[in-house]
């Protein structure tokens, strides 16, 4: 948490660019975003949704509140969500689980399953094993690396993603790769994208 607080306090907005291919959800859909950071994904969400966004970093939420005063922003840990069961139609977990160790990822998955309504959906994105940064830094857990900022990043496979959210039904899981030009070189970025459905009980 201190690493995130430091980054957002000293560097301000950390994440540039836009978020593509958000799902088309009905007006009034109650949505939870985990790890909203400085509001990159939140910026792309339609105002017709009923949105709650949380982050573990207060400096991040302060950045968010300037550009998204209409959203409910909460300081909370995605491993212990402060919501009643069956509270949300959709949960977005974009690049948040990958910054947790395995027990934390499992806790997040359990909490997502708990707060989703029956018939609700989880929208998940994380970096995959083929990503250009895989292997950079100190390996502190399998496929999990600590870099200079003090923040860890875990790199996922499709099968691991399915296993992590085993309480939900996978609607789609796929790996997407694209080239990014860095200092004249083309390097591969890799992302796991998945949608999971909570079955009717």
UniProtKB/TrEMBL annotation:
Pfam families: Methyltransf_11 (PF08241). The keyword Cell membrane does not apply. One of its GO terms (biological process) is methylation. SUPFAM superfamilies: S-adenosyl-L-methionine-dependent methyltransferases. Residues 32-124 form the Methyltransferase type domain. InterPro entries: Methyltransf_11 (IPR013216), Methyltransf_Superfamily (IPR050508), SAM-dependent_MTases_sf (IPR029063). This is Methyltransferase, putative. It comes from Methanothrix soehngenii (strain ATCC 5969 / DSM 3671 / JCM 10134 / NBRC 103675 / OCM 69 / GP-6) (Methanosaeta concilii). The lineage of its organism: Archaea, Methanobacteriati, Methanobacteriota, Stenosarchaea group, Methanomicrobia.
């Amino acid at each position: 948490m201190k690493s995130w607080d430091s980054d957002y306090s000293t560097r301000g907005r950390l994440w540039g660019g836009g978020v593509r291919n958000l799902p088309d959800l009905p007006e009034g859909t109650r949505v939870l975003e985990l790890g909203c950071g400085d509001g990159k994904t939140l910026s792309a969400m339609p105002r017709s949704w009923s949105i709650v966004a949380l982050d573990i970093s207060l400096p991040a939420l302060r950045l968010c509140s300037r550009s998204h005063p209409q959203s409910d922003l909460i300081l909370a840990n995605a491993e212990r969500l402060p919501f009643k069961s069956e509270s949300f139609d959709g949960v977005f977990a974009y690049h948040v689980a990958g910054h947790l160790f395995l027990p934390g990822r499992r806790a997040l998955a359990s909490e997502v399953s708990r707060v989703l309504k029956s018939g609700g959906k989880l929208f998940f994105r994380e970096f995959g094993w083929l990503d250009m940064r895989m292997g950079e830094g100190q390996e502190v857990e399998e496929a999990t690396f600590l870099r200079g900022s003090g923040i860890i990043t875990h790199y996922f496979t499709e099968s691991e993603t399915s296993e992590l959210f085993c309480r939900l039904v996978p609607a789609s899981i796929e790996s997407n790769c694209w080239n990014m030009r860095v200092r004249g070189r083309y390097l591969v970025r890799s992302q796991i994208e998945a949608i999971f459905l909570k079955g009717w009980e």
